[in-house]
Amino acid sequence: MAVTRELLLAYYGQDREDGRLRAGHGRLEFWRTQDVLRRTLPPAPARVLDVGGGTGVHAEWLAADGYDVELLDPVPLHVERASKLAGVAARLGDARELPVPDASVDAVLLLGPLYHLAERADRVRALAEARRAVRPGGVVAAATINRHAAVHDTVRTGSYVEERQRETAHAAMRDGHMLSPGGGFPAYFHDPDEVPGEFADAGLPNAERYGLEGAFWLYGDVEDWLDDPERRRLLLDAQRSMESAPSLLGVSGHLLTVARRQVRHEYGQG
């Protein structure tokens, strides 16, 4: 299934993205992404290129933390919203052809583009572009949706009882290609074990994987935990303690994979 620009614009034109990570159980993904990035990004005021950054949900807090943030996104509505955020520059752009010079930023974030690049060659191209744009020693971080997420989510929400939802979720589990019934979310779902290979083929070996939500996103009372600051702290600490356990990576709805562009030493090693 090809994820066309028309499909993306139709989906994101519904203006769902701005609130997805700001309310409800989506806050777990938001806070865990923030937690991992704050531990792996170079210190502010490093220059961060937020590719496919949507309406600026992450760009906003990065700018508040003191980073020099530029956001690129293919959706005009997203760019319009993000450009109104303090400290955030925003413009239209495609992850496969970044409009920035070589080695010009300290970190590149791909927190959405790999969801929508159905062909492996396009995903590797986007990662290679991120590597090109980042300085030696700089960070490339990319989010992916896990292969079994649709089955987990439809059971969680109760929609698994509907035949079309069940069929769509199992189709995504088989080959990674996802298109929600009714023309909804068009995406590619990764097997966690295929992500490091895509990074390596883009010139980014030794990538580290972080399961964002663990099994906690499937808990019926997770929003109660997120609403209470002390319980939220405990929940985030619990997931941090097992975030890279290989046997648990695929349980998370999302994976965050982080690598550094290697620094070439005198004899071409590194």
Characterization of this structure:
The chain is of the alpha/beta class. It has one domain (5-260): Rossmann fold. 38% of the residues lie in helices and 20% in strands. It has 11 helices and 9 strands. Strands 1, 2, 3, 4, 5, 6, 7, 8 and 9 form a 9-stranded mixed β-sheet that branches. Keywords: Methyltransferase, S-adenosyl-L-methionine, Transferase. GO terms for molecular function: S-adenosylmethionine-dependent methyltransferase activity. This is SAM-dependent methyltransferase. InterPro entries: Methyltransf_11 (IPR013216), SAM-dependent_MTases_sf (IPR029063). Residues 49-141 form the Methyltransferase type domain.
Keywords:
270 residues, alpha/beta, nine-stranded mixed sheet, 11 helices, 38% helix, globular
Number of domains: 1
End-to-end gap: 38 Å
Return the CATH architecture.
3-Layer(aba) Sandwich
The average pLDDT value, as a whole number, equals 92
Question: Major sheet, described briefly?
Answer: 9 strands, mixed
Annotated CATH homologous superfamily:
Vaccinia Virus protein VP39
Helix % is 25-40%
Large-scale geometry: globular
Give me the Rg, rounded: 18 Å
Low-pLDDT runs of 5+ residues are 266-270
